[in-house]
Amino acid sequence: MQRNAWTSMAGALALALSGCGGGGSSGGGGGGGTPTPTPTPPPSGRFFADPPQVALTQGEVQQIVAQAVGEAQARGLKATIAVVDRVGNVLAVFQMTGAPANTTISRRQIGGLGAAGDLVGLQGLPVPSAAAAIAKAITGAYLSSGGNAFSSRTASQIVQEHFPPAPSTVGLESGPLFGVQFSQLPCSDLSARVQDGFIGPKRSPLGLAADPGGLPLYKNGAVVGAIGVEGDGDYGFDPNTLDNDSDAEEFAALAGTQGFTAPRSIQADRITVDGTSLRFSDATADGLGPLQTSFGAINGPAGGLVAVTGYTDGMLRGGTAYGTEASGVRQSTAAEFALRDAYVLSNGAGAGRYPIRAGTDGVSVAQPLTAAEVRAILEEAFTVLTRARAQIRQPLDSRMQATVSLVDTHGVVLGIVRSPDGPLFGTDVSLQKARTAAFFSNPIAAQQLLAGPAPIPNYVQRVRTFLEDPSALTGSFAFADRSGGNLSRPYFPDGEVGPIAGPLSVDDPQRFSPFMTGLQTDLIIPNLVEHLGFVLSNGVEPDTQRGCTKLPDAPGGTKRVANGIQIFPGSVPIYRGGQLVGGIGVSGDGIDQDDMVSFLGLHNGGQRAGGIANAAVDIRADQIVVNVNGRSVRLRYVSCPFAPFLDDPKQNVCEGL
C-alpha cells in the first residue's frame, strides 16, 4: 500500500482507538468431494489415533484458488481469496482485479442490527481485505478437526450475546464460545509469526472471524487448512440464523473447497449444542456454477497473487503436514510427556517450545509450583480428558480432544499438552483461560487494571460497584473463567434481558457487538491498531509487541495476560493453602467438558502431588451473591457434565470437591 493510503487509514485507526470503551446446511458434494473415511482405530495402548500426516500441494492450492475465483467471477464479486494450512501458514493470497483493498468492520446500530451506528470498539474500522480473508481462513482451519468441521458462519453463531442468534431468541444465554473471536491475536506470545519459520500455530491479523466466507479444507478425512474469501466490503456476522443467506463470499469459498470438502458426517450442522444444531454454510453445492480449475486461466487475466506484510511474500506454496516436526505441533517424546497420546508444540527443529518447568514467580509467592507438581496436574488433566465423552465431535461417544495449559501467577507458561486431533484454536485459548483465571484471582488484579490506559481503569470501579465490594479484584475471591464470563455478558444474569450489563461488558447491552465485548476488547485494541498499521504501511510502521495489553509487566518483564483474556468457561486458579500459585486452562471441546478437565485435573494432580488444590470452597466466586433489583443472583464457578465418562457411569463427578 502506498504511503498516502496508509496516512489516510491511520486516521481511522486512531479514531477507533479513541472511540473504545464503551437454516440450511451445505451439501458436501461437487468436484468429486472428499470420501468419508472409516475412523482409524487407535494403536494398541493408545486412546487416540494420530491424524493422517497429509498436506495441500502447490497444485492443489492453485486449484482451490482457481475454483473460488471462477465462482466469484460468475457472481460479479471482486474478491480477495486466502488459503492457509492447518497450522495457519498462509499458502496463497489472490486479489482479483478491481477487488477493494480494504473492508470495513460492521457497525451495530443502537437498538438495531447491522446498520450504521455509533462507533464502539472495532466497529467501523477499515481493515485490509487480505487481512479479513486470512482471518476467515484461519478460523475455518483452527475451529475444525477430524471430528468436527466448523466454518466462520459457525463461529458467528457461537460468539453472539444470544444462542442461537435471531430476533426471536432474545433472552437466551450467550453463545457457548462467547469471546473466542478475540483469540489467535496478532500480539499473542504463543502464536508464531512469519519470521519464526513455517511452524504454527500462526497468528491471525484480526483474531477469529464471524463473517461467513471461511470454510475448512480436507484430504482423506483430515483437515489440511481452509479458504477465506472477502469481497463485499463488510466484515461482519450473521445476526439471524433462522434464515438462509445467499452470500457470494460463501459461495466462492464453497467452490474453492470442491474436491476438498469436509466429510458430511462431521459438518457443523450434524453437531448439536444444548439441543441446537450448529450452522456450517448457507451456500450449497447445487448452487455453484461450472468449476474453473485452471490456475493459469485466472492468474493474470483475473488478478494475481499479492504479498501481505507479516503473512506472505506473495508466493504460492504447499502446506505443511500437521503432526510433523516442521508443522510446530507433534507427538511428544517420552522425556517431554510420559503419556503416549500427548502432543506438544515444537520449534520446528526438534525442541519443545513449552517444556514442563517450575514456577518463575518466587518474588510474588512464598512457594512456587514445582516441576513435579506441574507434571502431575497436566498428566492428571490429560487423563481426565482421555476418559471424557466429547460434546462437539462425531461420531457420537468419541473421546474429548483439547489442549491443556498451565501458568504461574506471572503468566509464564509452565507446560502445554494437547490431544492429537484437538482443534488448533484451543491451543491459544487454553492459555488465555489459564492466564485469565490466575489474573483475576490475583491480589494485584485491580492494581494492574488501574495502571492501564483509559478506559481500562474504569472497569475496576464498575466491578466494585456491581458486587458492592470496595475491595473486589484484590485476591479475596477465586475467579474461574466461568465466573469472569458471568461478569462479561451484556445481560446479567446471562439468559435474561434485564436492565443491567455485566461490569466487564459494554456499559449498555445495546452497544454490544461481536467486535466489542468490553474489557476483553479494550485490553487489546491498542495492539491490534499497531499491527494493522504495520500491515497497511508495508512494514514502515513497527509491528505490535509479542505480548498483548498495555498493562504493567510482571516482575521479570512478562505480561500476565500476554495473549489477551478469555471470557468463556474452562479454567480454574491453582492454590497452595490460601495462596494463589497459578492457573490451568482447557479448550477444544464443550465448555462443561473444559471446566471438568481443569477442575478435576487440578484436584487429582493435587491429590497425587500433595500441597496444591482448587480454591477453598469459601473463596470461590460462586460464594458471591449479586443484588439484581432486589433479587439475589449467585455467580458461577465451574459446571461439569452430568455423566461425562465413557468408562464409568458415575454422575456429578465434580460434586463436593
Automatic annotation (TrEMBL):
<protein>
    <submittedName>
        <fullName>Heme-binding protein</fullName>
    </submittedName>
</protein>
<dbReference type="InterPro" id="IPR005624">
    <property type="entry name" value="PduO/GlcC-like"/>
</dbReference>
<feature type="compositionally biased region" description="Gly residues">
    <location>
        <begin position="24"/>
        <end position="34"/>
    </location>
</feature>
<dbReference type="InterPro" id="IPR052517">
    <property type="entry name" value="GlcG_carb_metab_protein"/>
</dbReference>
<dbReference type="InterPro" id="IPR038084">
    <property type="entry name" value="PduO/GlcC-like_sf"/>
</dbReference>
<feature type="region of interest" description="Disordered">
    <location>
        <begin position="24"/>
        <end position="49"/>
    </location>
</feature>
<dbReference type="Pfam" id="PF03928">
    <property type="entry name" value="HbpS-like"/>
</dbReference>
